[in-house]
Specification:
7 helices; globular
């Protein structure tokens, strides 16, 4: 058991921030909900670690669990209003950080408008995953992912500029 625990600890430490950022993309930046979803993801990782078959890389497997966990949450709660996450900006005195925070929230708002599969693709792309790995996670061809990423980026650029 201690070997499994130490393996899990290293997996957790290596992947926590990536999983958390991915969850933030699904929750429009809601830190509390993102932490809950991250915790739920790692509970699933812990429960299923013994059954991991190495069909894909460990990180691909964890991302797939994260995406599924977040999509289930979205289906259950539908959407988290972006206004819930803007209240902390009123307390900020630093104009540049406030502007950056508003831009980030605007991006999250635009991402939230995407279809779930496109949302998954762009959040994984923003996380810096290779498109080949994104294709494995989503279950599409590498070429389809390349085309989708291009289209999604154009859609988000238009949305953010509005």
């Amino acid at each position: 058991m201690s070997t499994l625990k130490s393996k899990f600890d290293s997996i957790y430490n290596a992947n926590y921030s990536k999983v958390f950022r991915l969850c933030q993309g699904y929750t429009n930046g809601n830190e509390t909900l993102s932490k809950d979803l991250t915790q739920e993801t790692f509970i699933k990782v812990w429960k299923n670690l013994k059954s991991f078959r190495n069909d894909s890389s460990l990180s691909t497997w964890i991302y797939r669990i994260t995406v599924n966990t977040c999509l289930i949450e979205l289906r259950n709660k539908k959407s988290v209003p972006i206004s819930d996450h803007l209240s902390h900006l009123e307390q900020s005195n630093d104009d540049s950080s406030e502007k950056k925070e508003l831009q980030l929230n605007q991006l999250y708002c635009c991402i939230a408008k995407l279809k779930n599969e496109n949302k998954s693709i762009i959040l994984l792309e923003l996380e810096g995953l290779p498109q080949k790995e994104i294709a494995d996670i989503i279950g599409l061809s590498h070429e389809a992912i390349r085309v989708r990423v291009h289209r999604i980026k154009n859609e988000l650029t238009k949305c953010v500029k509005q």
